[in-house]
């Protein structure tokens, strides 16, 4: 029905489902010309009746908002990431240091650590291990907000080094 929140629409069997989450975010300063520490932690939950398309995940790419930058969530549009389930926790800590302004925005270097874990995963799988990734990146802050990020991350669990890029619409995402 019109006006009904997406999280309350019935699935194919007519059962109602729910999704929700809690996001906590902190940063040391909002001043874009100063070095900044930031931290984000999130818990996301989907009910048993929620379709797979609304389950949560953490990784790189367009699949979900949670960052786990050394672990792609999708490979050739197929879900392959290890941190995907009806309940997901993830967090990131980042330090970014401005280098200089450019004609298209401010340029910064960054170091980060991401972590994530999933519960109630597809195919009856239980809890995933805790995945932790660490890396370095470059940020190009656009005038008016948002930033382009280019990151190289190494998975501390599962190995692998991944190059990823993304667009952050504004803090804390």
Rg for CA atoms: 17 Å
The strand order across the widest sheet is: 1-2-8-9-10-11-12
The N- to C-terminal Cα distance equals: 30 Å
Shape: globular
User: What are the secondary-structure elements, in order, as H or E?
Assistant: EEEEEEEEEEEE
Helix content: under 10%
Give the uncertain stretches in residue-range form. 1-11
- Mean pLDDT over the full residue set: 83
Q: Please tally the β strands and state the result.
A: 12
Counted by DSSP, the helix tally is 0
The largest sheet, given as strand count, sense and whether it forms a barrel, is:
7 strands, antiparallel
Helix/strand/pairing category: mainly beta
- Strand percent estimate: over 45%
Distinctive features:
single chain; 173 residues; mainly beta; 7-stranded antiparallel β-sheet; 3-stranded mixed β-sheet; 12 strands; globular
């Amino acid at each position: 029905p019109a006006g009904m929140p997406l999280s309350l629409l019935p699935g194919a069997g007519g059962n109602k489902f729910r999704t929700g989450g809690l996001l906590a975010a902190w940063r040391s300063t909002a001043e874009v010309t100063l070095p900044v520490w930031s931290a984000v932690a999130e818990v996301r939950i989907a009910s048993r009746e929620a379709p797979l398309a609304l389950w949560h995940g953490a990784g790189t790419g367009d699949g979900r908002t949670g960052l786990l930058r050394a672990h792609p969530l999708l490979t050739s549009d197929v879900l392959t990431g290890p941190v995907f389930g009806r309940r997901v926790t993830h967090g990131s800590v980042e330090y970014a240091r401005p280098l200089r302004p450019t004609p298209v925005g401010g340029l910064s270097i960054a170091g980060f650590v991401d972590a994530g874990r999933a519960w109630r995963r597809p195919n009856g799988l239980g809890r995933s291990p805790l995945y932790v990734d660490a890396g370095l990146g470059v940020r190009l802050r656009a005038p008016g907000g948002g930033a382009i990020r280019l990151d190289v991350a190494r998975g501390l669990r599962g190995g692998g080094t991944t190059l990823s890029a993304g667009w952050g619409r504004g803090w804390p995402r």
